Amino acid sequence: MTKFTNRLASKVPSTRVPRVAIAILAAGKGTRLKSQLPKVLHEVGGKPLLAHVIAAATRVVPASDVFAIIGHEAQRVRAALGHSGVNFILQSEQRGTGHALMVAREALSGYDHVIVLSGDAPQVTPQTIARLLNFHLDQNAAMTLLGAELSDPTGYGRIIRRSARGAKVKAIVEEKSASAAQKKIREINAGFYVFDVTQLFSHIEKLSPDNPHAEYYLTDMAGILRQAKQRVVVWKTEDSREILGANTHAELAIIDHQMRARKCYELMTQGVSIFYPGTCVIDSDVEIGADTVIEPYVQILGKSRIGCGCRIRSYSVIRDSEIADDILIRNGCILEAARVAPGAVIGPYSHHRPGSDIGQGAHVGNFVETKKTKLGQGSKANHLTYLGDAEIGEGVNVGAGTITCNYDGVHKHTTVIDDGAFIGSDTTLVAPVRVGRGAYVGAASCITEDVPEDSLAIGRAQQIVKKDWVRERRAARGQEKPKEPERTRAIRLED
Ligand code: UD1
Ligand code: CA
Questions:
Q1: Residues with beta carbon inside 6 Å of ligand 1?
Q2: Can you tell me which atom of ligand 1 is nearest the CA of 70?
Q3: Using CA atoms, how far apart are residues 33 and 253, in angstroms rounded to an integer?
């Protein structure tokens, strides 16, 4: 931001740095999505459309200078994005993009320029916003719009230039009002603008809803300002992907795909190997260190951070988790809000729910579920186990089929297993309970009481052997002894 502000200062002849706000148009319903969810909360790259636009905006100006204009389901939008620190302005009736700015008039009165972004165009970059602003300041314009050349311009507003050369704009014509000749124009209005605030609000009253949608179109400001002899210019971007708006589910899917492809590309340039990147789903905010290998069909979501030198095998899904360095996550694991320390080996098919904390060099094997559980350094739980609300020390061996009984139907209770303990297979640990340091639990035990340090606990029915019981029953029923199974031909040949 500092770099940008310096640039701003150098562009303006006056000694004062202009005060710049960003308004994000985000009040619309998104009729074309046919959804209960407001349009700007639909997700691409793993987070809401509006969250992407806010992220770009707040890299250009501080959050306190960003104003999101919300309306449809405003409470939901505010609840989802309030944490961003931007201001929200309510446009209770959505009467068009121009009307949205009328509603923001008072909030914007203290600024010199306002950059207008669209809450449904999430690929806009801070660099493009800054360039548009700098062009606007250089040109001393009342209105600057971002243009782009599209091979299929259908649905977008077309830019009518004053002449083939030069940046001056005569008007913007919306698709529905465009003549056949105008529809052939491939230079479209991206829906991002910069306005001189004084000029905008001196003329905004001239907007009229006299159009097929009966809305106040912000785009009409181009013609209005031009008629008022104000300077209206266009700056054209080379990267037309940046301006794509998500109006339909098909467009959401296209943008999502583009974002994820770009994310994979970025990660690969940072030293991450991704096999078949087109099959991997990696959210925008994910961080991955160099020399980590991501196999096909992996999903890494939310705010996950993965260190260096890891290998994530196919079909694993990792959400909001912290994976340190040199970790192997085998096929088909699910991790959610989990932490894994360096050198651990996980899976295949293990499930780590929120609060799982897998220690350094620990091993977790197939069909193991953990929740709110710390598994200490070097400890192992390799097969078919549930560990919930457990504190497990270092060097503990949790046998196959061990279950923590953490829930009594009303409350959750903690199981503590101290360092070096050995839990035999098929043990149930009825919490609250503690197994002391170095203690042993015999296989198939149901442990309901604490086991002291270095002791052996066996909590199962004692084995009874009834010698010859089967033989006697067979004799009583007059049955013959079953024949020995026939030996296979292969073995006979070897005889
Ligand atoms: C708009 C432009 C069009 C441009 C296109 C680029 C207008 C009239 N048209 O069309 O020239 O090519 O964007 O994507 O501006 N919104 C409000 N309040 C309202 C109405 C809309 O906040 O009363 C918000 C919407 O939530 C959306 C944004 O403004 O985020 C743009 O509105 P939308 O209806 O999507 O405009 P387009 O038809 O795409
Ligand atoms: Ca749109």
A1: 25-28, 39, 69, 91, 94-97, 99-100, 118-121, 156-157, 172, 174, 188-191, 217-219, 245, 247
A2: 22
A3: 12
Residue 469 within any structural domain of the chain:
no
Rounded Cα distance, 193 and 101, in Å: 12
Confidence bin at 46 (pLDDT 50/70/90):
very high
The CATH number assigned to the domain holding 265 equals: 2.160.10.10
User: How many angstroms does the Cα of residue 170 sit away from the middle of ligand 2?
Assistant: 22
Q: How far does the centroid of ligand 1 lie from the alpha carbon of residue 25, in Å? A: 8
The letter for the amino acid at 233 is V
Domain count, the chain: 2
Cα of 32 from ligand 2 centre, angstroms: 10
Active site residues: 383
Task: Say if 494 falls within a structural domain.
Answer: no
Same domain, 253 and 110: no
**Which of 218, 243, 268 finishes a domain?**
243
Structure pTM? 0.89
**Cα–ligand 1 centroid distance for 118 (angstroms):** 7
Of the pLDDT bands very low, low, confident and very high (cuts 50, 70, 90), residue 485 is confident
Which ligand has an atom closest to residue 243 CA? 1
Mean pLDDT for the stretch of residues 421-430? 98
For the segment 369-390, what is each residue's pLDDT rounded down to a tens digit?
Answer: 999 999 999 999 999 999 999 9
Residues in CB range of 153: below 8 A, 6 or more apart: 183, 185, 186, 187, 188
Residue found by looking up tokens 């311009």 in the block: 153
The whole domain housing 283 covers: 249-457
Strand residue runs (E) in 17-138? 20-26, 43-44, 47-48, 66-70, 87-90, 113-118
Q: Is 285 exposed, middle or buried (0-12, 13-18, 19+ CB in 10 A)?
A: middle
Residue 176 and residue 207 in one domain: yes
Which residue, judged by its Cα, is nearest atom 33 of ligand 1?
Answer: 28
Whole-number pLDDT of residue 199: 98
Q: Given this model, what pLDDT does residue 489 score?
A: 59
Do 210 and 290 fall into the same domain?
A: no
- Output Rg (C-alpha) for the chain, integer angstroms: 33
CATH code assigned at 189: 3.90.550.10
Based on the domain organization, do 204 and 342 belong to the same domain? no
